[in-house]
Structures are given as C-alpha cells and as structure tokens.
Amino acid sequence: MKIAVVVAAVAMAVVGASAPAAAASGQQEDRLVLKSFRVMSEQAPVGGDVRFRATYTSEQQAEFLCETDFGDGQVSDGPCDNIRHPYAQPGTYQITQTGRTTTGVVAVSTGSIVVVPDQGPISITATATLTAPRTILVHSDPASGYDLTRMRVFWGNGSYTSGYYPSMRDIDWVYAEPGTYVIKAEVFDSSGASAATNLTVEVA
After folding, report:
1. Mean of the pLDDT values across residues 149-154?
2. For the PKD domain, which residue ranges apply (predicted)?
3. Which CATH class is domain 123-203?
4. SS3 helix, strand, coil % of the chain, rounded to 5?
5. Taking the CA of residue 91 as centre, how many other CA atoms within 13 Å lie in the half-sphere pointing to its CB?
6. If pLDDT is split at 50, 70 and 90, which confidence band does 193 have?
7. How do the domains of the chain map onto residue ranges?
8. pTM assigned to the model
9. Among 70, 74, 57, 64, CA closest to 110
10. pLDDT reported for residue 106
11. Exposed/middle/buried for residue 176 (C-beta within 10 Å: 0-12, 13-18, 19+)
12. What is the widest separation between alpha-carbon atoms in the chain?
C-alpha cells in the first residue's frame, strides 16, 4: 500500500468555555497552539501501521489529549503523539485531529492521505568488484513496491557504511589487510521491511 501525503495541516486555536471565567477573574487566557502535524512515513503496506505525529503547546502548560478521526470510520482518543493506525482498504482518507486541554481550549488540525494497494515485497541483488588494490566497490539493485529509504553495507571486518538510497547504490571500501571477507548489503523501505544479500570477496 502506497501512501501519498497531501500536506494540508491547519492550526486553529479556539478559546473554550473556561476563557470567559478566566477573563473575568483577570487571569491570562490559555491558547493551545499546533506546532506540527504530519504522517511519519509516506508509504506503508496494507494492514500495516501508519504513524501520525502532532505537537501542541499550551500557553498555560495545561494537560491535553487528542481525538483523531482517521477518515475510515475509526477514531482514537488519547495522547496526541506517535499515533498508529492501519488502513485496510485503498482510498483517499481525510484525517482530523482535535486537541483539547483540561481548561477547555481546542485546536484542530487536518490532513489527507491516498492509500493504494500493495505493490510487492522488497528485494536486493548486489555485486562486489575489485576496483583498486584492496578496494571493493559494492553495486546494489534493490527493488520494492514502496519507497526505498536506507541502506547499510557490512564489510566483514567489523565496519559498516550506512546511508540513504539512492546515494548508497554504489559504495566502496578500502581494506587495511588482505583476506577473505563476507560483505552484507541490506536495504530498508518506508514500510519498515528489509532485505539483505551476502557477497564473499577475496582481497589480495
């Protein structure tokens, strides 16, 4: 399942029922301010957890909770941060999150996502080539139905290189000593899945 995020986060602070009383008593009115609302990953498999993250601040340091309507008939009520929700069917979903403080102040944020069907598992093939004395170049060809994100290459000598795809597609390493090394190339996609392949090289 591929998730394309349409960034349409909207912050709105509304003073609740407690505000008139606060104003009458001369106390400062509270405001709940939305700092950010986003989907943590752009793609996920069908049935997998899609993570949402929102950050609010209360000017009076009041405690607050959130009601999150995921647009598929499901609603969660609880903490505002690190919310997880699986989507079972493809489609376009409107997400509405309402934050409420204990003082009655409300802030609303919205966003939309498009969910498409699963497009296949992750895989990787790789080759290792001696390009210079004791220098091995690893070329990898990962594939996935989701966004490829990170890659790691373990060089078989206790060292590894980590980075983001596609900059890691071609990566080399200079060995300090000759010998036989087992290299492991590993790739991750945005759904959290991973795949790996091993290569044995002789370094003279």
Report:
1. 93
2. 69-115
3. mainly beta
4. 5, 60, 40
5. 11
6. confident
7. 2-116, 123-203
8. 0.49
9. 70
10. 81
11. exposed
12. 84
